[in-house]
Write a structure and sequence with these properties.
This protein is of the alpha+beta class. The chain has 4 helices and 8 strands, in the order αααββββαββββ.
Length: 144
């Protein structure tokens, strides 16, 4: 399947498996996505390969950042009419607490969209949404 066919399939069926398998990094870290009404919730499963500190054990900060950035890009492409993956311009991440080796979730909110640029806020949590482990802001270029 081409990327456009995978995206059409995902939009029509709500099944994100093919899309996640087609993105090598998303597949490698185990990124998953589910739709709940109009909301997309992203999930990073507990996975030993994602650890950065096996003593705690804690998820590697780069994996958390990559999970959040990838979640924002997929969220944005699912909310747009285009079939192209948006290009990241800027990504600012605040680590708030240790991301322990357990399931991690993320949700995204579009804060501003222009003709060429979109801003997305991302929040990642483990136990409770009210206690995020990280928050981020991402700016994407929508067109060339």
């Amino acid at each position: 399947m081409t990327d456009a066919e995978i995206l059409r399939h995902t939009r029509e069926t709500g099944d994100f498996n093919r899309m996640m398998e087609s993105i090598p990094y998303a597949s490698w870290i185990g990124l998953q996505c589910e739709r709940f009404g109009d909301d997309l919730i992203f999930r990073l499963p507990k996975k030993e390969e994602n650890l950065g500190n096996p003593i705690l054990p804690a998820i590697h900060g780069g994996v958390i950042g990559g999970f959040m950035e990838m979640s924002a890009a997929i969220y944005l492409i699912m909310s747009q009419d285009t079939l192209r993956m948006p290009r990241i311009v800027d990504f600012s991440l605040d680590y708030l607490r240790a991301g322990l080796n357990r399931e991690t979730y993320a949700e995204c909110h579009l804060t501003r969209q222009g003709n060429r640029v979109a801003n997305v806020m991302i929040s990642a949590w483990q136990k409770s949404r009210s206690q995020p482990i990280a928050t981020a802001r991402a700016h994407f270029l929508l067109e060339d």
